[in-house]
């Protein structure tokens, strides 16, 4: 099975602490690397995670609050100093484009690669990136400013050839791709060998959803049905639900409710408020509703 991993670079909220970096992750899928949010310190965290800067294919920014994008201009500058030539695609809510272009003109003149911005419609659920192996779709979130979540979906692969059966029926290797695509095999005597007898199904396609920042949305689970792993912000405890409402954030219990309603396999908590010295209390509240909850932490790698 091809790698599908999430590397946690930062899982704190806006107020800096010594325990956590601001939001940033790298999604690794089938040899491609995509960054999701880019708070301060992201470059250092990339070094610690031993992810090469040159491997980042694209960046997806959820919204233009500083703890999710203040690290972007620094990383763009570093890419230039490292001699990057491949374009960097940045997907972000529309307002960030003009802000970043001014910074690039001022700080990054003369670099030999292009930064291509794609405006994200934060009110829509649609595919904004697609290649042969995966797609990325947006999820509308509800925050104090336009904000989007992202779902990374692996595309299904073709069935696997059962080599012993193929050898038994003398199927030439040249026909394997046709059979994987649903063609039956006709042997020398005219017998039809169904492709289902010559193949076994591929592994189910996997998916990962990133939802930060957002108030609790009872309808959010509808976008997340069938997702394997969900990262959902869990900024506050239940006792601070009033603050969650005021600042358009979620509690750990609310994140767990979304995970439960969506039927995901695993919930990953993050975007912790600096007011809590021990995030295990957030985990305890989440587990009361959704037992398969875990805490994100810098340096954690999650296998999807």
TrEMBL record:
Gene3D superfamilies: Ribonuclease Z/Hydroxyacylglutathione hydrolase-like (3.60.15.10)
EC code(s) of this entry: 3.1.26.11
Reaction equations catalysed: Endonucleolytic cleavage of RNA, removing extra 3' nucleotides from tRNA precursor, generating 3' termini of tRNAs. A 3'-hydroxy group is left at the tRNA terminus and a 5'-phosphoryl group is left at the trailer molecule
UniProt-annotated binding residues for Zn(2+) 1: 63, 65, 143, 213
Residues that, per the record, bind Zn(2+) 2: 67-68, 213, 271
SUPFAM superfamilies: Metallo-hydrolase/oxidoreductase
Domain Metallo-beta-lactamase: 204-272
Superkingdom, natural source: Bacteria
GO MF annotation terms: 3'-tRNA processing endoribonuclease activity; zinc ion binding
Cited Pfam families: Anti-Pycsar_Apyc1, Lactamase_B_2
Annotated catalytic residues: 67
Cofactor note: Binds 2 Zn(2+) ions.
UniProt xrefs under InterPro entries: Metallo-B-lactamas (IPR001279), RibonucZ/Hydroxyglut_hydro (IPR036866), RNase_Z/BN (IPR013471)
UniProt KW keywords: Endonuclease, Hydrolase, Metal-binding, Nuclease, tRNA processing, Zinc
Cofactor: Zn(2+)
Known function: Zinc phosphodiesterase, which displays some tRNA 3'-processing endonuclease activity. Probably involved in tRNA maturation, by removing a 3'-trailer from precursor tRNA.
Summary of subunit composition and partner proteins: Homodimer.
Annotated family: Belongs to the RNase Z family.
NCBIfam families in the cross-refs: PRK00055.1-3, RNase_Z
Protein name (record): Ribonuclease Z
